């Protein structure tokens, strides 16, 4: 399976990982130019607008966080190598807003450090830097509008700040106590053996993709395809998806992780065919083409390492939470306040692979 499993981990914003199968695929059909929302923890450089408020303002973009998290392999090292090439000296200002609010390079590098290494791979560190810098801009502008509206003086705001403090502590614990366990090669190899046993064969489609922001644009694409225009050429010219740089190629996508609205269209196609009608999602309007169909095969160990790190992290977290719950005195109640039946013990499920 060649898809980027790291995108399934966007739930750092709520301390746990979203391992839903559909979540693993969202980045393939999303706009690479959208803003990103990365939570900033204690390593972030201080800012006048307040880190917690910035995180809260960007909460609606959690899926974009996973997209940004899939950009570079070692954020700190990559950022350093990039800056060495440009001979950056000191801590220069990288963003100034309205002539007064400034963000320095250290702010952006601090944001990079908060992305788990096992979640980041693929695009250049320069691109990651640009995305995080632009996110700082968008967050600041939004926060300023909220202040003008007086939202920072409401009880709702202060209650939310307290909630975010608890979530931040959870993320910090996850990063510092559990994430290091994913660097144990023996554990990763043991998990790879288990992955091979669990692996189930299926079909995967080599997908080509064109995405537009409006229905009118995608209809123009369909009309051009109907006249015999080359799909890859149109992808380069018209698509908003990151895959346009690769002639629209998204790679091989297993059928069982495709969102149903896409799968229902794609599985009807033969090699070389494209969807005669567009698919609408929250990210835009899409047309898909099938370049090949083949049986799925297990990833090689080297290819599977990012996925294995996620599995190990998930399982370590599950074991820890089960242990802590058994040690705690927990009382559950129904909505009417009456005692609730104790939940049945169930075997924890690993993230979809």
Task: Characterize this entry briefly.
The protein is of the alpha+beta class. About 45% of the residues lie in helices and about 10% in strands.
Which key phrases capture this entry?
single chain; 353 residues; alpha+beta; Chitinase A, domain 3; two-stranded antiparallel sheet; 11 helices
- Poorly predicted residue ranges: 1-83
Please work out how many helical segments DSSP would assign. 11
The helix/strand series, from N terminus to C terminus, equals HHHEEHHHHEHHEHEEH
Termini, distance in Å? 8 Å
Inertia-based shape? globular
Cα Rg: 22 Å
As an assembly, this protein is: single chain
Give the percentage of residues in beta strands.
Answer: 5-15%
Largest sheet: 4 strands, antiparallel
The helix content is 40-55%
Mean pLDDT: 77
Please state how the strands of the largest beta sheet are arranged side by side.
Answer: 4-3-6-5
What is the SS-derived class? alpha+beta
Query: How many beta strands in the DSSP annotation?
Result: 6
Describe the 3D structure.
Helices cover 43% and strands 11% of the residues. By secondary structure, it is an alpha+beta fold. Among the domains are: 20-167, no CATH class; 200-295, Roll (Chitinase A, domain 3). The strands form 2 sheets. Strands 4-3-6-5 form a 4-stranded antiparallel β-sheet, with helices on both faces. A two-stranded antiparallel ribbon has the order 1-2. A hairpin with a 3-residue loop joins strand 1 (93-97) and strand 2. Mean pLDDT is 77; it is low at 1-83.
């Amino acid at each position: 399976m060649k898809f980027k499993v790291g995108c399934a981990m966007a739930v750092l914003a709520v301390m746990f990982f979203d391992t839903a199968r559909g979540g693993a695929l969202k980045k393939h059909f999303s706009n690479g130019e959208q803003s990103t929302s990365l939570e900033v923890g204690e390593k972030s450089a201080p800012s006048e607008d307040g880190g917690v408020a910035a995180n809260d303002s960007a909460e609606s973009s959690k899926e974009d966080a996973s997209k940004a998290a899939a950009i570079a392999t070692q954020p700190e090292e990559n950022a350093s190598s990039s800056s060495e090439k440009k001979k950056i000296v000191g801590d220069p200002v990288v963003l100034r807003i309205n002539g007064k609010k400034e963000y320095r390079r250290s702010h952006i590098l601090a944001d990079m450090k908060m992305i788990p290494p096992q979640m980041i791979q693929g695009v250049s560190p320069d691109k990651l830097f640009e995305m995080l810098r632009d996110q700082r801009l968008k967050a600041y502008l939004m926060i300023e509008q909220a202040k003008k509206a007086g939202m920072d003086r409401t009880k709702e705001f202060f209650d939310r700040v307290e909630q975010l403090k608890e979530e931040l502590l959870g993320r910090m614990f996850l990063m510092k106590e559990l994430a290091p366990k994913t660097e144990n090669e023996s554990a990763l190899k043991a998990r790879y053996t288990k992955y091979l046993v669990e692996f189930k064969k299926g079909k995967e489609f080599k997908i080509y993709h064109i995405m537009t922001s409006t229905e009118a644009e995608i209809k123009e694409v369909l009309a051009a395809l109907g006249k015999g225009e080359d799909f890859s050429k149109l992808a380069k010219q018209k698509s908003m998806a990151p895959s346009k740089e690769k002639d629209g190629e998204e790679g091989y996508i297993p059928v069982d992780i495709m969102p149903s609205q896409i799968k229902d269209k794609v599985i009807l196609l033969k090699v070389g065919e494209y969807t005669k009608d567009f698919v609408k999602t929250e990210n835009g309007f899409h047309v898909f083409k099938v370049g090949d169909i083949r049986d799925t095969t297990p990833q090689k160990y080297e290819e599977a390492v990012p996925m294995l790190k996620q599995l190990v992290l998930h399982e370590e977290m599950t074991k820890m939470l089960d242990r802590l719950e058994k040690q705690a005195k927990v009382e559950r109640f129904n909505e009417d306040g009456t005692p609730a039946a104790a939940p049945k013990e169930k075997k924890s499920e690993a993230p979809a692979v």
